Amino acid sequence: MASQLNQLRAKAMEVSSFVVKNSGTYYKQLLEKNKKYIQEPPTVETCRLLSKQLFYTRLASIPGRKESLRKEVDHVKQMLSKHRQELKVEDVGIAALLGLECFAWFCAGEIIGRGFTITGYHV
């Protein structure tokens, strides 16, 4: 057990020294490769402006997304009304699993939003 711990410690030191030696080079390469995405001047004010632009652009895109969702729902309703007799059990099962997955993600988001508590009370 002690020898495995020493091996693990040695490996961790080796990885740590590799990261320290190569992180600066990697950082410079990453910035150079993605230079077209960097807004000049790179200041806090520029970041705030970009953040506001992103927020309001996404806010402005909500009506378009809402209309797309409405079209998709209408299409599904039409398919169900026209081809109800042709539906297979597998298709209904897949749709049910998709709905269940969406509900599970909603529940997980709610739990995360409450600080990883089930009831919402912090102990």
From TrEMBL:
GO terms for cellular component: mitochondrial membrane; proton-transporting ATP synthase complex. Keywords: ATP synthesis, CF(0), Hydrogen ion transport, Ion transport, Membrane, Mitochondrion, Transport. Coiled coil: none annotated. It comes from the Eukaryota. Pfam families: ATP-synt_G. It is found in: Mitochondrion membrane. One of its GO terms (molecular function) is proton transmembrane transporter activity. GO terms for biological process: proton motive force-driven ATP synthesis. Belongs to the ATPase g subunit family. This is Mitochondrial ATP synthase subunit G protein. It comes from Dorcoceras hygrometricum.
